[in-house]
Design a protein that fits this description.
Helix content is about 35%, strand content about 35%. The protein is globular, with a radius of gyration of 19 Å. By secondary structure, it is α+β, with helices and mostly antiparallel strands. The longest helix has 30 residues, at about 130-160. One of its GO terms (molecular function) is RNA binding.
């Protein structure tokens, strides 16, 4: 992602999501924030650790995303830093996501929060929960790939000296 495309670096990322879920599809949604929340978000004061998304009355909401209050904020700072925040999607996108989530074992997982063209965006993924053996399998695969890459790097170093 380059600056030319209008993307900035992720301000908050849910690293545990790929460990706990098989992410099948991801969709970008706008976020409704107050003025001081966007200032805190731009300062990188957000956490997605326990966050999840729900759909109520045809609207999507992000729950448990923690945005710390802005220090230089005014009296209109939100009282609850983990309040539910509305996500902006087209109606067809919301209905599509709702249909996919109704299947067994699927949930809406926030993956990343970033600024795009001056607007706060949240990448929401549709994930199916992993079982314990799936997690162990993924960890073993990642470790073996890391070992292979390490061995290849060592071989390249040795061959460059000859």
């Amino acid at each position: 992602m380059s600056k030319k495309d209008g993307f900035d670096k992720p301000l908050a990322q849910n690293k545990k999501a790929s460990h706990d879920y098989f992410i099948e599809e991801a969709i970008e949604a706008g976020m409704v924030l107050t003025g001081t929340e966007i200032k805190s978000l731009r300062n990188g004061r957000a956490q997605l650790g326990d966050a999840f998304a729900t759909i109520r009355n045809g609207e999507m909401f992000l729950h448990n995303m923690h945005i710390s209050p802005f220090e230089q904020g005014n009296r209109h700072n939100p009282v609850d830093p983990t309040r539910a925040r509305k996500l902006l999607l087209h109606k067809a996108q919301t209905h599509k996501m709702l249909g996919q989530v109704k299947r067994d074992g699927y949930t809406l997982v926030p993956l990343r929060v970033y600024i795009k063209n001056g607007y706060a965006k949240c990448l929401i993924g549709i994930g199916k929960g992993k079982k314990q053996f799936d997690k162990r399998q993924a960890d073993a695969k990642r470790d073996s790939q890391r070992d292979i890459q390490r061995i290849l790097r060592e071989k390249q170093k040795v061959s460059s000296y000859k």
